[in-house]
Amino acid sequence: MRKPIIGGNWKMNRGTPAETKEMLKKLLPLVKKITNVDIVIAPPFTALISAIDLVKKSNIRIGAQNMYFEEKGAFTGEVSPKFLKDIGVTYVILGHSERRNIFKESDELVNQKLKKALAMKINPIVCIGEHLEEREAGKTKEIIQNQIDKTFKDLTKEEIIKTVIAYEPIWAIGTGKTATPEQAEEIHVFIREILASKFDKQTSELVRIQYGGSIKPTNAKELFEKENIDGGLVGGASLEADSLLDIIKAADETTI
Ligand code: 13P
């Protein structure tokens, strides 16, 4: 019922125009026949225009890794959603844990960005997730509840349905330590329960929830087979066309 979505978050690891061209030229013919999975690549800002040029008329969409919530003004170093939209960006990753932890983005700021992205019709992918100490202290659900309360504050039903949620436990990001399918599914079910209580059950079942954190070709299928995991947000393994292709295929197989 929900179309899986695979996002490749290149972070600051790859993104010269030459690297972007090399990767996308390889990926494009490989994913040509995939119609049951939404594919989004999020390179750094400097590679967005090259990437958009390369994927024109294909089934790959290009996302930004961040944006500001104002369209214009004295905000040195920030990027306007208007500029992103103008060049053809259709997705934006918001509130990634690296933005929250290193650059101190708060839930309130992410909420402002989310509302702006929705108003500008840029598809938001919003990240939430707990630290290792929080999991070990048995606080995962409390943290997730709090992040959802604040990050998705004052959204309408129509808006939450258009929002992709990425559950990315911070201890699993870039560590090689993936959450087990059961651990991930438990939190995805919990997220859906929260959405059902905030909106209604039907709405909660329409929201796509991705898992993120050390997804690899070897563990993708077992994660995506879980009922409430609607694809993934992939870091390291999205840098090479072959590994990303295997992950996209794993999501595609769950739709058959
Ligand atoms: P890794 O796949 O490298 O663990 O990164 C996950 C992530 O942060 C995607 O946004």
What's the number of domains?
A: 1
Total number of beta strands? 8
General shape: globular
CATH class: Alpha Beta
Helix/strand class: alpha/beta
Comma- or semicolon-separated keywords:
eight-stranded parallel barrel; TIM Barrel; binds 1,3-dihydroxyacetonephosphate; globular; alpha/beta; 46% helix; single chain; 12 helices
How would you portray this structure in words?
By secondary structure, this protein is α/β, with parallel strands linked by helices. The N and C termini lie close together (12 Å). It is built from 12 helices and 8 strands. It is globular and about 45 Å long. The model has no long low-confidence stretch (mean pLDDT 97). Strands 1-2-3-4-5-6-7-8 form an 8-stranded parallel beta barrel, surrounded by 6 helices. The chain has one domain: TIM Barrel (Alpha-Beta Barrel), CATH 3.20.20. It binds 1,3-dihydroxyacetonephosphate. 1,3-dihydroxyacetonephosphate binds next to strand 8.
Put the structure in a nutshell:
The chain is of the alpha/beta class. It contains 12 helices and 8 strands.
Q: What topology does this entry show?
A:
Elements: E1 5-9, H1 17-31, E2 38-42, H2 48-55, E3 60-64, H3 81-87, E4 91-94, H4 97-102, H5 107-119, E5 123-128, H6 132-136, H7 140-151, H8 157-162, E6 164-167, H9 181-198, H10 201-206, E7 209-212, H11 217-224, E8 231-234, H12 241-253
Parallel strand pairs: 1-2, 1-8, 2-3, 3-4, 4-5, 5-6, 6-7, 7-8
